[in-house]
Design brief:
Blueprint (H helix, E strand, L loop, with lengths): L6 H10 L41 H17 L1 E5 L2 E11 L5 E7 L5 E6 L7 E6 L2 E7 L6 E2 L3 E7 L6 E7 L12 E8 L2 E8 L2 H5 L9 E3 L1 H13 L4 E6 L2 E5 L2 H13 L3 E4 L4 E3 L1 H7 L4 E3 L8 H4 L2 E3 L3 E2 L2 E2 L8 H14 L3 H11 L6 E2 L2 H7 L4 E2 L1
Parallel strand pairs: 11-13, 12-14, 13-15, 14-16, 15-17, 16-18, 17-22
Antiparallel strand pairs: 1-2, 1-9, 2-3, 3-4, 4-5, 5-6, 7-8, 8-9, 10-11, 18-21, 19-20
């Protein structure tokens, strides 16, 4: 999806800017029936749709939050120019081995971004702020001290000859890019609060892919940001505006809780004329009421504007529909859409499974929306 393969391109960009599913083996019938029934026993009918019977409990939410918070707080620490940045704020997967990480210090007031290549990529790590490279350091495989639990890089920087150290947890680092990179900004006007999305790493891509909008992703960072905003504005009328291309979720386990928070706080969700939602972004849009689409081009059919997109999911090499509807992943999704959309929620979920494969996209039409009462107002 968002792929940039060379660190040279990174430098150019910055310098230019200044189910769980279970199966049971079939039981082999005996060679001779014992007391055979007078009528054949039919196998249980396959469910035609998943049941909306999953329980989203406070205890489950607390467990999810603890796991994700642990990754944000303890997965990685960078010490540079006398400051220790030890909490991950946002993250981005550039390629399968290359990552962008925004780290903040203990006060939450100082941030730096770190480009981290794979150990065998023979590229430098780069410390930067928006629009300029601050420094670089060698982080090749031969300079990494690896133990069972952690990897440590301790060296001096290339440009400024400053001491630098980077330490990360080997296991947790695998999940870092699921944290997400969608910024939520709030603006207050009396008793009204408007929350607007943006992409934390937009400047990284804007020169590399001129005219191409890269999607931001959702994850634990989205949940915790929204939770802070909600807790600071209890009793206010809140509107969530998707103002950029908000794509999929790196972590459906917490993204559904983000949607339930939107729904329980009776937020209005709006896809603005400059925004679009897809996959996990559409899941969050679905949680609002009303759900408003502001068309990017009022002369086009909504599907041609590509602003509300859906698709199926896949796991462990299997498509969603290869899992029985009794599978927990199906039941979670069915319960989620039933909670945020009501009676048509489960049918809408099944529609997403049939709309496009996991690697594809279907942009919703007005007829799609009308069938499931999805977009409540089109402007």
């Amino acid at each position: 999806m968002k792929k940039i393969t060379t660190v040279a391109l990174l430098a150019t960009v910055l310098s230019g800017c200044g189910s769980d599913s279970s199966s049971t083996a079939p039981v082999k019938p005996p060679t001779k029936p014992v007391n055979p029934p007078t009528k054949p026993v039919n196998p249980p009918a396959t469910p035609v749709k998943p049941k909306a019977d999953y329980v989203f409990s406070p205890d489950k939410l607390d467990e999810v939050k603890r796991e994700r918070q642990d990754i944000q707080d303890h997965a990685m620490a960078l010490t540079y120019n006398g400051v220790r940045y030890d909490k991950i704020k946002f993250s981005e997967e550039v390629t399968d081995s290359e990552k962008l990480i925004r780290l903040t210090d203990n006060s939450g007031l100082k941030n730096v971004d770190l480009y981290l290549p794979g150990a065998v990529d023979n590229k430098n790590c780069i410390i930067y702020a928006e629009s300029k490279i601050l420094d670089k350091f060698n982080c090749d495989a031969n300079i990494r001290s690896i133990s069972n639990d952690t990897t440590l890089i301790a060296t001096t920087t290339i440009d400024k000859n400053l001491s630098v150290s980077l330490e990360y947890n080997n296991d947790m680092s695998e999940y870092v890019t699921a944290i997400g990179n969608t910024i939520l900004s709030e603006a207050k006007n009396g008793n009204k609060v408007t929350i607007t999305t943006s992409f934390a790493f937009s400047y990284f891509y804007r020169d590399a892919n001129p005219g191409v909008e890269m999607p931001s992703t959702l994850g634990a960072s989205t949940y915790f940001q929204l939770s802070d905003i909600v807790n600071s504005n209890l009793g206010s009328k809140m509107t969530l505006k998707f103002n950029n291309f908000v794509g999929g979720s790196g972590d459906d386990g917490i993204n559904m809780y983000t949607g339930l928070m939107i729904n329980s706080n009776k937020m209005t969700t709006i896809v603005t004329s400059t925004g679009s939602v897809f996959s996990g972004g559409t899941d969050l849009f679905a949680a609002g009421n009303p759900r408003i689409l502001q068309r990017s081009d009022t002369n086009k059919a909504i599907e041609l504007n590509k602003q509300v997109g859906v698709h199926s999911w896949a796991e462990d090499g299997k498509t969603a529909k290869e899992f029985p509807y009794t599978n927990e992943s199906h039941r979670k999704q069915a319960t989620y859409f039933n909670k945020v959309m009501g009676d048509k929620g489960v049918d809408f979920y099944i529609f997403t499974l049939d709309s496009a494969p996991a690697i594809g996209a279907h942009w919703m039409t007005r007829a799609d929306s009308d069938k499931y009462d999805f977009i409540t107002r089109i402007e």
